[in-house]
Amino acid sequence: MFLLPATGCVINGMECYSPEYNLQNCPHRVAAARELGIPIELAGVTSLDDGTLQGGLNILGVPVGDHAYEQHRLQAKSDKVASAIDATISLLRSVNTPALAALAYTLQSRADYWLQLASSPEIVLPMATQIDAALLRAVSAPQCEIALLITDSLVLRRIRLPARHKGLGLRQRTALAPRAWAASFIGAAESFIHEGAVKHGFFVGLTDLFGDGAFAKDGHRFATFLQSDVPYARALERACGGERSRLGLDNWDPAMPLPKGPLSTPVDMAGIREEGGQSLHLQHAICEQAVTGGEVRCEAA
């Protein structure tokens, strides 16, 4: 109502959500709705199983809320992406090259936004698994020459390698999920708090959580954050720690030089560049080290 004179916009209704406070009978919600003269509803979806409200809302297209709500929304998005892959390949079934080009350059990345921005890498694993299956169905179409070889594990690994490593370039989304999430979270965290007089953060209320000067030059980065009990700290440990473990970096022979790459640094210093400072193109760097350190070994096989 107050926006009308300034913008010409009218608000006809609002939604609200809280992960901790029960808003069903909240007097503040009722009073605000009465004062504004608009309905203020509880945000979320109603479960078809028991009729309970799964609270949450979409922020820039990303579901944020109760675990069940996030799963519900992500499943709907996953179904839509998998359906688009199946439909597109079906339309291009008579010609291999356009079908594979569409698969490689447009369809396979349609869910990457949610892999990066979901509340944890684990909650998007069902989505990543469904999309991986749809990608394999597309590659296994009868018109594709490699259809008969798709069951061979070595061929499958080759299909999922980047083209720069002599692969087909159809990246495995279940493998990408923790890497994309970690890179996105690290990049966001670096902008949360002030970096001395050099850069102002946009979420300075989190300074105590990360520690003053965490991301300044020679700062302690995530050391203080990982000592907290917030779920995102554990998610970062699982995402980065899991990749380090898979590459054998946790038990690396001290007599051998560490391979170059962001995964070679401990989790508490995740994302730092060799020359110090903040990370650039971190997701690409993480994926490249993961590929050269593990997935590309199939070439030697």
How would you explain this protein's 3D organization?
- With 301 residues, the chain is mainly alpha-helical.
- It folds into three domains: 3-42, no CATH class; 68-171, no CATH class; 176-287, no CATH class.
- It contains eleven helices and five strands.
- The strands form two sheets. A three-stranded antiparallel sheet has the order 3-4-5, covered by helices on one side. Strands 1-2 form a two-stranded parallel ribbon.
- It starts with a helix and ends in an 8-residue tail after the last helix.
- The model has no long low-confidence stretch (mean pLDDT 86).
Head-to-tail CA distance between termini: 68 Å
Low-confidence stretches: none
Q: Treating each run of at least 4 consecutive H or I residues as one helix, how many helices?
A: 11
**Mean pLDDT reading:** 86
Indicate the topology:
Blueprint (H helix, E strand, L loop, with lengths): L2 H5 L6 E3 L10 H10 L3 E3 L1 E3 L6 E7 L2 E4 L1 H25 L4 H12 L4 H6 L7 H15 L13 H7 L13 H17 L17 H4 L20 H16 L35 H12 L8
Helix pairs in contact: 3-4, 3-6, 6-8, 8-10, 8-11
Descriptive tags:
single chain, 301 residues, mainly alpha, 3 domains, three-stranded antiparallel β-sheet, two-stranded parallel ribbon, 5 strands, globular
